[in-house]
Design a protein that fits this description.
The complex is a heterodimer of chains A (about 110) and B (about 475).
Chain A: H1 15-37, H2 44-55, H3 59-67, H4 72-102
Helix pairs in contact in A: 2-4, 3-4
Chain B: H1 2-23, H2 30-49, H3 57-74, H4 82-108, H5 117-145, H6 160-180, H7 188-204, H8 212-234, H9 237-260, H10 265-270, E1 289-290, H11 293-302, E2 305-310, H12 312-316, H13 320-332, E3 336-341, H14 351-358, E4 366-368, H15 369-372, E5 381-385, H16 394-397, E6 416-421, E7 441-445, H17 448-465
Parallel strand pairs in B: 1-7, 2-3, 2-5, 3-4, 5-6, 6-7
Helix pairs in contact in B: 1-2, 1-9, 4-5, 4-8, 5-6, 5-7, 5-8, 6-7, 8-9, 11-17, 13-17
The chains are: A mainly alpha (about 110), B alpha/beta (about 475).
């Protein structure tokens, strides 16, 4: 079976898989709430650009759609999605780091 | 073997994403968080490339190159434009989710057994959330960027909310029909896409500039949820986890923004705030006291604790650098200087902190509203630079004021208050500020950059005569 993981064959998309994903979603949301409430308010702007880059993990789905053997229209959809996610990844991480570099304690030299 | 290679990569990436956000709890470790995020992303992408079905490397390489070409310049925007950039990236996230959903839908047409009720339901959710986030975020970015043909002021018309909710219900209805008969009713899919795109635009039209911090956070949450829905469609746990982290982050930030303005979600989304308030309040001819830069500089020099309250007006006047010089002059005289940061100062959560950090002001001097307020009675001078509604005492006691109940920085409780303002015109929300007429408030009229510059000059010149 070539269709590994992503769109992992229709037969496996059973209610059980769906239920286990719901559990993953629930736990990840609780972890998210717990971790994010601890984030310093100083850093809420970089936080948003970082989570932005992280949620661009949708890139893995676009890669599979753009790279598999499909009709050209589907390729195009996948490629645009891939370019959009990639833009978010690149600009998200770069600008987060750029902002974080600016936060300095007194007496601390500006970091390169 | 390949299975574990890919799943293992996703497992590592999930852990690193959580750690990345965990390290954001302190500015000292925050950059490590970015590093963890980058590593996680590389691992996840590398793992995905082992997927045996991938044959068209040209498409992938081309799209990745476009992503770099767009992404690198987007990270160079000035910090005042970061809210727009963030909105644009929410739009891209939504677009990606919507397009992946559309691609899956049409692929499944050839393999009807893929359409289980659960997956089709998740797919519809992904597409609706994705496309409404796309247009909604573009509208928000346009409003923030002050694009000419997008109205800044909220636009309202009769039956607006009813119409919008009807539109959304229609899209959901079509979606449920698709769950029922995904092949026969496939023509409904483009209808759903169009409805979602239209809903995104109409959702943002009635929302004014003052509410943009909340709206951006909310759209952040939607973008995350669309990634979660994508994870459900593709049975991919990494997508579900990363999306849930993004979604919960957006949710928390929206709640913080709403609380900071004493508003509810429904009120932000359906309340059309920021309209010119036609208040027929008592038009008593109160006069504010004026102070010159010379006098103000002397007042500052005699203080032992000074609190500066910055607002977005400071960034508009590009006065951050001057404020920093003022901070230096005062600190040189062993005067304790702190900055009071209201949660909605700026145009997105935490925006003011970034703007001041850029001006090289140490972050331990940036104090949150709840921490600075108890110190206000011991503060000798409060200097308000470009802030207005967030220091208006009317929020505490005037039940008729539109900002009543909003938590404020207690600038009026300090021994003395200096407020820099261009003129006595009321602020953005059209509300008169009581603070300016208080007994111990002195106004410094003029452009924030010029006035703070004058203060610095006075202090720098004065110190030479000692």
């Amino acid at each position: 079976m070539v269709t590994l993981l992503l769109s992992a064959g229709a037969a496996e998309a059973s209610p059980e898989t769906f239920a286990s994903l719901l559990f993953v979603f629930l736990l990840a949301t609780f972890i998210g709430l717990g971790v994010i409430t601890r984030v310093s308010r100083l850093l809420h702007t970089p936080l948003m650009s970082l989570t932005n880059a992280i949620s661009a993990i949708a890139v893995v789905a676009s890669i599979v759609i753009a790279g598999r053997d499909h009709p050209p229209v589907i390729h195009l959809l996948g490629a645009v999605a891939l370019a959009a996610s990639m833009t978010n990844i690149v600009s998200g991480f770069l600008i987060t780091d750029r902002m974080l570099k600016m936060f300095r304690k007194p007496g601390e030299e500006k970091r390169p | 073997m390949t299975f574990w290679l890919i799943e293992g990569a996703y497992l590592v990436a999930s852990a690193l994403f959580v750690m990345a956000l965990y390290w954001m709890n302190d500015p000292k470790t925050a950059r490590r968080g970015v590093g963890a995020g980058v590593v996680a992303m590389v691992v996840a992408v590398a793992g995905t490339l082992f997927n045996p079905g991938i044959v068209h490397w040209g498409w992938i390489a081309g799209a990745v190159a476009v992503g770099f070409l767009l992404g690198v310049p987007l990270s160079w925007v000035p910090l005042t434009a970061v809210p727009q950039r963030t909105a644009v990236s929410h739009a891209f996230g939504g677009l990606a989710a919507g397009l992946v959903g559309a691609a899956e839908f049409y692929l499944w047409q050839g393999e009807p057994e893929s359409f289980t009720a659960f997956r089709t339901f998740a797919l519809v959710a992904e597409v609706i959330l994705g496309f409404l986030t796309f247009t909604g975020s573009l509208m928000a970015a346009g409003k923030l960027q002050e694009v000419r043909w997008i109205p800044q002021r909220p636009v309202t018309y009769p039956f607006q909310n009813l119409g919008n909710i009807g539109l959304l219900l229609l899209a959901v209805g079509c979606g449920l029909a698709l769950v029922w008969k995904p092949i026969e009713l496939a023509y409904l899919f483009p209808v759903i896409v169009v409805l979602a795109l239209a809903f995104g635009i109409l959702l943002i039209i009635p929302i004014g500039g003052a509410d943009m911090p909340t709206v951006i956070s909310l759209l952040n949450s939607y973008a995350g949820l669309s990634a979660v829905a994508m994870g459900f469609v593709l049975d991919n746990k990494l997508l579900v986890i990363a999306g849930a982290l993004d979604g919960s982050s957006g949710l928390i930030l929206s709640v913080i923004m709403c609380r900071a303005m004493n508003r509810s979600f429904t009120n932000v989304l359906f309340g059309a705030f920021g309209q010119v308030q036609a208040r027929s309040g008592p038009a008593e001819a109160r006069t504010a006291k004026k102070e010159t830069p010379e006098g103000a500089a002397q007042l500052l020099e005699m203080a032992s604790q000074v609190v500066i309250v910055p607002g977005y007006g400071m960034a508009v006047a590009q006065a951050q650098q001057r404020v920093r010089e003022l901070y230096d002059e005062l600190t040189k005289r062993r005067i304790e200087v702190k900055f009071a940061i209201h949660p909605v100062a700026g145009r997105m959560p935490g925006h003011m902190n970034v703007l001041l950090a850029e001006a090289d002001i140490p972050y331990d001097k940036l104090v949150e509203m709840d921490d600075i307020n108890p110190e206000m009675p011991q503060t000798d001078v409060v200097l308000v630079v470009g802030a207005n509604d967030v220091v208006n005492p009317a929020a505490r006691h005037d039940k008729t004021s539109p900002i009543f109940g909003m938590p404020i920085i207690d600038a009026d409780k300090a021994r003395m208050c200096l407020a820099i303002k261009r003129s006595m015109n009321p602020g953005f929300a059209g509300i008169e500020n009581e603070l300016y007429f208080a007994d111990h408030t002195y106004m410094l009229f003029g452009d924030a950059k010029a006035v703070v510059g004058d203060l610095v000059k006075q202090l720098a010149g004065g110190s030479g005569m000692h």
